[in-house]
């Protein structure tokens, strides 16, 4: 057994060591890794939709990089986690290939040890809701939704529709597993869309509809009902499907999504129009005072609205474009100067920022604040 070049303990959640016990190519670009605890201690349970954060050696000595990968297996698999990773190639000569995804594909094998923290994440299945569920995924975005489908199989009285879109059968991962679940459990059904079916792809056997997930397709699949929707996929897919659902009258609070990009991309029309007309009409902080958020570089000062999960989402809703990457308190790309006020971190970041700094992807204001954005 070899342990790849990793680091040791960090604050908040101490990373654990995981031994790779299986490595399964799902197709030409996605490979699944089955993990067990290297110390043979029990693994903590996870909620479908959560992810592990892997700590890997970076491109230079002493450099550490972190990457999130959703758990794609069943929460009922005792003692085993699974992640399914897409190899990220260089899209053009100006872009380098994905460092960690290629390392996992090319260098990590059965018996190797990886270090990760978690499980964690807010994009999770609401197991208490009795509403029917629609899972909508594009490409490798299916990974957390496959985990959700495993859990929903247990809820026999909860109808679930899994809609997955990809290019064709050569890049369709975990399809046999999803089909097997739907065949075994009558409350589950599937619809696979291939944008450009391959020569060997047969409609009715390998996929159900050619093309993309359209408004008309959703309308034909889903009788009128009050659904819970879960979305995960690339930006164009997410924005298109989100827009279709809104146009079909779905209330936004019924749509949950995992999206590593600006929140304003998926719901730009609404976010761009977001304004606060009267300070006295917005929620207050303890003591009754309105919490004002000043973005000093942009000259924008607005009352804080607690319906936002973090200051990054709030800033994007004001039309600002702060730096970010992980949106999970891991990479520190969103760190900025905090010149006034105090913050709370409902989800503690990997490492707390130093005094006078803020990680806006996981922070909310305790009162009025000023940020150098």
From TrEMBL:
Cofactor(s) needed by this chain: heme b; FAD
Similarity comment: In the C-terminal section; belongs to the flavoprotein pyridine nucleotide cytochrome reductase family.
Record lineage: Bacteria, Pseudomonadati, Pseudomonadota, Alphaproteobacteria, Hyphomicrobiales
E.C. code: 1.14.12.17
Segments forming domain 2Fe-2S ferredoxin-type: 291-373
FAD-binding FR-type domain sequence ranges: 13-126
One protein family per Pfam: FAD_binding_6
Keyword list, A-Z: 2Fe-2S, FAD, Flavoprotein, Heme, Iron, Iron-sulfur, Metal-binding, NAD, NADP, Oxidoreductase
PROSITE patterns from the UniProt entry: 2FE2S_FER_1, 2FE2S_FER_2, FAD_FR
GO terms of molecular function: 2 iron, 2 sulfur cluster binding; flavin adenine dinucleotide binding; metal ion binding; nitric oxide dioxygenase NAD(P)H activity
Enzyme kind, highest EC tier: oxidoreductase
Catalytic activity, as annotated: 2 nitric oxide + NADH + 2 O2 = 2 nitrate + NAD(+) + H(+); 2 nitric oxide + NADPH + 2 O2 = 2 nitrate + NADP(+) + H(+)
Identification of the protein by name: nitric oxide dioxygenase
Entries under InterPro entries matching the protein: 2Fe-2S_ferredoxin-like_sf, 2Fe-2S_ferredoxin-type, 2Fe2S_fd_BS, Beta-grasp_dom_sf, Cbr1-like_FAD-bd_dom, FAD-bd_FR_type, FNR_nucleotide-bd, MRET
């Amino acid at each position: 057994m070899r342990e790849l070049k990793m680091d040791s303990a960090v604050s908040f959640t101490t990373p654990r060591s995981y031994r790779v016990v299986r490595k399964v190519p799902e197709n030409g670009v996605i490979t699944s890794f089955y993990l067990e605890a290297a110390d043979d201690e029990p693994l903590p349970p996870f909620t479908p939709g959560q992810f592990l954060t892997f700590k890997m050696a970076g491109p230079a000595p002493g450099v550490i990089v972190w990457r999130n990968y959703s758990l794609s297996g069943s929460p009922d698999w005792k003692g085993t986690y699974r992640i399914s990773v897409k190899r990220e190639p260089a899209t053009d000569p100006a872009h380098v290939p994905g460092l960690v995804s290629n390392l996992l594909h090319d260098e990590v094998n059965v018996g190797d040890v990886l270090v990760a923290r978690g499980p964690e994440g807010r994009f999770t299945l609401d197991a208490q809701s009795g509403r029917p569920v629609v899972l909508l995924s594009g490409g490798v975005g299916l990974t957390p939704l496959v985990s959700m489908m495993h859990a929903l199989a247990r809820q026999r009285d909860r109808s679930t529709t899994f809609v997955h879109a990809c290019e064709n059968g050569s890049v369709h991962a975990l399809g046999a597993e999803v089909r097997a679940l739907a065949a075994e459990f009558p409350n589950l059904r599937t619809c696979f869309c291939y944008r450009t079916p391959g020569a060997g792809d047969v409609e009715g056997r390998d996929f159900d509809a050619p093309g993309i997930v359209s408004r008309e397709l959703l309308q034909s699949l889903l009788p009128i009902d009050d659904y819970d929707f879960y979305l995960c996929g690339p930006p164009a897919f997410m924005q298109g499907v989100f827009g279709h659902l809104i146009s079909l009258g779905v209330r936004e609070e019924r749509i949950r999504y995992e999206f590593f990009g600006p929140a304003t991309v998926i719901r730009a029309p609404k976010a761009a129009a977001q304004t606060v007309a009267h300070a006295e009409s917005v929620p207050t902080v303890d003591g009754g005072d309105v919490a004002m958020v000043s973005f000093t570089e942009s000259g924008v000062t607005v009352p804080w609205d607690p319906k936002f999960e973090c200051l990054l989402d709030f800033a994007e809703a004001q039309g600002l474009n702060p730096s970010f990457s992980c949106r999970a308190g891991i990479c520190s790309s969103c760190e900025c100067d905090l010149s006034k006020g105090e913050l709370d971190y409902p989800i503690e970041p990997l490492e707390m920022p130093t005094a006078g700094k803020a990680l806006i992807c996981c922070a909310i204001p305790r009162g009025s604040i000023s940020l150098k954005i």
